[in-house]
Amino acid sequence: MTRKPLFVVWAWLCLAVLAGSQVRSEEKQTSPSPEAQEPFSIKDERLLQASGPDPCHTDAQIYTSDSKGYQVGGMVEISNGQPYLWCNGAKHTWIGRHENIKGAIAVIDSSKDEPLQFKVEKENGYVYQKGKGTVTLLDGKVVQLPVSLDVSPPPKVSSSALLNVAGDWEGSSSWKGIRFTIALSVPENSREISSLKVTPECTEGTGGMSAALTQPVMIQADNNFDFTAGQGSKGTGRFVSEDSVEGTYKAPFSMKCGNEFVEISGKWTAQKKRK
């Protein structure tokens, strides 16, 4: 058996040690601080379905979401015939743009190529896993993900995003053959409309109706909101100041007022009620 000279073996060991030392040195220089490593998360109990299996193995792609539910792909765990999307350990990959997620997140807007993924963790909240996009929180703050470790201070939130719209609002408008009234409420320290009621009434004859929200509506960072009050109706709103809100409303049917059928459609305004 031919033996390698000792100095060759010694030289090889020295190179290996030096290489390992260089790798550790580079890792030490490039590793972020423990604070930077902590993942972005949203801590809100509404994002945790406490009654679901624990842990659960849901790994779903969410394509659309609204007041009626979610359109999903991938895997959703089913226990005793009940599907669980928001159980502890569930992963969600958000495809496209989604608004008013369980009343706890204003907007999730994913990159087309690298959609955002979050995981439900009962101890840590709704934790960012991967992907690119933005998350708009209830206070109007927009978070760009992934969070860069070396970024300039975020731009100041425009004054329009800081409007104090909490309180009770009401107003009336005149349309062709219709008197339209609207009333809505925003709780303190909230960006959510908890109740809203519309009442169109005939200016001639006795026709009239009223309709209300079926669930709360989120106010977006730009102070706009959309709502449905009445089957198939479409409504919009925008807080233009801390005392005034304006919008539109359209019902998918007409109302008979006297001898004519008139459309329930037009612009409306409302003002904050003073205590």
Q: Topology of this structure?
A:
Blueprint (H helix, E strand, L loop, with lengths): L5 H25 L3 H4 L3 E2 L16 E8 L2 E7 L1 E3 L2 E3 L6 E4 L2 E5 L3 E6 L5 E6 L3 E6 L2 E4 L5 E4 L21 E9 L2 E9 L5 E2 L1 E8 L8 E2 L4 E2 L5 E4 L6 E6 L4 E14 L2 E13 L3
Parallel strand pairs: 2-6
Antiparallel strand pairs: 1-10, 2-3, 4-5, 6-9, 7-8, 8-11, 9-10, 11-12, 13-14, 13-22, 14-16, 15-18, 16-17, 19-20, 20-21, 21-22
How do you describe this structure in short?
This protein has about 280 residues and is mainly beta.
Give the overall silhouette.
elongated
Distance linking N and C termini: 99 Å
Q: Which ranges are low-confidence, i.e. pLDDT below 50, for 5 or more consecutive residues?
A: 1-36, 154-160
| Helix/strand structural class | mainly beta
Number of domains as seen in the coordinates: 2
User: Order of SSEs, N→C?
Assistant: HHEEEEEEEEEEEEEEEEEEEEEE
The average pLDDT is 81
